[in-house]
Design brief:
Helix content is 71%, strand content 0%. The protein has 715 residues and is mainly alpha-helical. It is elongated and about 180 Å long.
């Protein structure tokens, strides 16, 4: 132990080869020949630490030396060395056994490697010969021919590139052509061109300049859609078949037929609102006489309240004319679609191809959608028209209008309701209710005024015969003209019977190509004046001429009878009734001699007949309040009957005309006179006169007192 060194000192002296030595063949043979227990050998191998099998770079000697204890023992070292030798011997024997076991496979693989080496050498020779022959061909023929082919290929590529560049250049200049087509309103052509450009741009999308062009084309397409929407809105006021055909073709190219129909209905609604607002605004500003812009900020309902009485009828006529144009445009739009659908159906039936089934179904779906949308839009548009006209009608109080003006308003609304019935089959309940309110309000005021005028006529009536022609008829009066016009098919719808309207041509068919049904209203307002009086001998009938010359002549009347006040005894101041009675009896006798066949009329009677004609005309136009009108018309007759009875039906002195409705005291005395039964031919007449006295005469007196009180308040 004294001569031994430490492990650290002896590490460098050992070479790595000494750490593990492969046994020679003789040693392997000896090891193989030595009998050994396989199980024992396997246990020895298993006892080897795993670190010896970790990697090829493992340093066994260093590992064993580092494991030596600090204090060395020779016996322990020898024992450990013997153990390592046994492990080495076991491993060597195992390796030897494996080598001997794999020896045939090794020999066979070695033969294959040798054969492969020989084949590779032969391939190398063949490749060398091939390269030599290829160099000869390249130098002699191939290089020139392939050069030509390469140049031709480059030429074809450059031609394709030039074509692409020209196409891109054309695409870059497309916006100018698109602008020109939009100015020409060639919307289908513009959209078709834009879509083709987008398709071409997608083909050349590998070029960097095309990305910007794509966005530009998309913006252009959106601009075209905006202008197309503006063009669609123009249809609402002035339908042009060529213009609308272009717009529909453009929307079909875009695949937005249904969207176009939705937009069209929005435009019609907006057109109705803008139209009525502009018409009313124009009249309001015209009547205001200034350029104040405050009216433009008002709502339509508030704007209608600023319409004056003078401008009410012209504004209503223009309003109906403008709304008629909108509804006519919608009517012609429906006609266009019906005609277009029929043409398409005929084309589809004639060309039946299985490949076009899907496209045909889509077109059929679009047509059905458009048809239902248009049919639904009829009532919607008419409802908007009714609401606008209703707002205008109720915005002004019509109770103080003249009768002819009010009848003109009713006639316009009646024609408008006929338009609505032909437009969508509507009964125009909204318009009927609004005109009923105005009519009731107007007629109450009108009837009250007419009764007051009738009272004044009766108080001033001289009960002289009114000279009229022998051929006189109530149909000759202005107020009864509507009865003759109702027999003519070319008059206002308010004056036509229902059978004539149904059998005649509709207004939309009549005015489809021009004109306006509300233009003739202004012409019908001024009717011809009737000529029913046989006055001053200017008649065509010679008998009437001589009779009325004699009737109106004062040559045979004494001078004193021409005076207003003549006393038969003194010649100074007799009472007025004597001279008038004398003159009346003389004229009556003359008239009876010459005008036996003439109707017996007075001025008041003629006036009552005129009022009856006006009331009948209003009944004809205003069916909803016809019962009220006929009730008021019966009051006219009752009032006239009571007046005739008061003047001529009593046996004693008649009550003076001025006291007919002058005071309650005199009316009370009249009732006392009636209660006696004097002057009454029957109890039925007495009952009738009492009813008139209680229901009408007292009411008229109350109205008169109220009117006088209102006048006094105003003064």
């Amino acid at each position: 132990l004294k001569g031994l060194r430490s492990p650290q000192e002896s590490v460098n002296d050992l070479s790595p080869i000494e750490s593990f030595r492969i046994p020679t063949k003789e040693e392997l043979r000896e090891l193989h020949e030595e009998p050994a227990d396989p199980q024992a050998q396997q246990e020895i191998i298993n006892s080897i630490e795993e670190v010896y099998f970790s990697s090829d770079s493992f340093d066994i000697v260093k590992y064993e030396l580092e494991r030596l204890p600090p204090v060395l023992s020779l016996q322990e070292l020898e024992e450990y060395r013997d153990k390592l030798k046994q492990q080495q011997a076991a491993v060597s024997k195992k390796v030897a056994d494996l080598i001997l076991e794999k020896q045939p496979a090794y020999v066979e693989e070695l033969e294959r490697v040798t054969s492969l080496q020989t084949g590779l050498q032969l391939a190398a020779v063949i490749c060398t010969n091939g390269r030599r022959h290829l160099n000869i061909a390249k130098e002699g023929f191939t290089q020139t021919s392939l050069g030509l082919l390469a140049n031709q290929r480059k030429r074809q590529l450059l031609i394709g590139l030039l074509k692409s560049l020209r196409t891109i250049k054309t695409l870059q200049r497309t916006d100018v052509r698109l602008s020109e087509m939009l100015e020409e309103e060639d919307y289908p052509g513009a959209i078709q061109l834009c879509l083709e450009c987008q398709k071409a741009a997608s083909t050349f999308k590998h070029y960097s300049c095309i990305s910007e062009l794509n966005s530009k084309l998309q913006d252009t397409l959106e601009q075209i859609e905006e202008q197309l929407d503006v063009a669609l809105s123009k249809i609402c006021k002035n339908f042009d078949i060529n213009h609308y055909t272009k717009v529909q073709q453009a929307y079909r190219l875009l695949g937005k037929t249904q969207t176009a129909m939705d937009q069209l209905h929005m435009h019609f609604t907006q057109a109705i609102h803008n139209t009525v607002f502009q018409v009313v605004l124009g009249y309001v500003e015209l009547c205001a006489g200034n350029t104040d812009t405050k009216f433009q900020k008002l709502q339509y309902k508030d704007l209608c309240t600023h319409i004056t009485s003078d401008s009410y009828i012209p504004c209503l006529a223009d309003l109906c004319k403008a709304l008629w144009e909108v509804m006519l445009s919608y009517y012609r739009t429906m006609q266009w679609h019906e005609s277009h659908d029929q043409d398409e159906a005929a084309v589809v039936s004639s060309v039946s191809d299985g490949n076009n089934v899907i496209g045909t179904e889509e077109n059929s779906f679009d047509r059905n959608y458009v048809k239902k949308k248009l049919e639904h839009g009829l009532s919607r548009i008419w409802q908007d028209v009714q609401l606008k006209v209703k707002t205008y009608l109720l915005g002004t109080d019509l109770s103080n209008f003249k009768y002819d003006d009010f009848i003109f308003v009713l006639d316009v609304i009646s024609r408008l309701m006929q338009v609505g019935e032909e437009f969508c089959g509507s009964k125009s309940e909204v318009l009927q209710e609004s005109i009923r309110k105005q009519s009731v309000n107007y007629f109450k005021t009108y009837h009250r005024t007419r009764l007051e005028e009738l009272r004044m006529f009766l108080e001033n009536e001289t009960w002289e015969l009114c000279p009229v022609k022998s051929s006189f008829s109530i149909l000759q009066l202005h107020e009864f003209k509507f009865m003759e016009q109702s027999r003519s098919p070319s008059v206002s719808p308010s004056k036509q019977p229902a059978s004539a309207i149904s059998s005649s041509v509709t207004l939309f068919e009549q005015y489809c190509n021009g004109g306006n049904p509300f233009e003739i209203q202004a012409d019908s307002k001024d009717d011809e004046t009737e000529d029913v009086l046989a006055s001053n001998g200017y008649e065509s009938d010679e008998q009437e001429k001589s009779a009325y010359q004699e009737y109106d002549s004062d040559s045979d009347v004494p001078e004193e009878l021409k005076r207003d006040y003549v006393d038969e005894q003194t010649g100074d101041a007799p009472i007025k009734s004597v001279s008038r009675e004398t003159l009346r009896s003389r004229k009556r006798s003359d008239y009876n001699l010459n005008k036996v066949n003439a109707p017996i009329l007075t001025n008041t009677t003629l006036n009552v007949i005129r009022l009856v004609g006006k009331y009948m005309q209003m009944m004809n136009i205003l069916k909803p309040i016809a019962f009220d009108v006929i009730h008021f018309m019966s009051q006219l007759f009752d009032y006239y009957l009571y007046a005739v009875y008061t003047f001529f039906g009593r046996n004693d002195m008649p009550i003076p005309a001025a006291s007919f409705c002058a005071s309650n005291r005199e009316q009370h005395s009249a009732r006392q006179f009636e209660s006696t039964g004097l002057g009454l031919s029957s109890s039925r007449l007495r009952t009738t006169l009492n009813r008139i006295q209680e229901s009408l005469i007292d009411l008229v007196s109350t109205w008169i007192l109220l009117m006088f009180s209102e006048i006094q308040v105003c003064l």
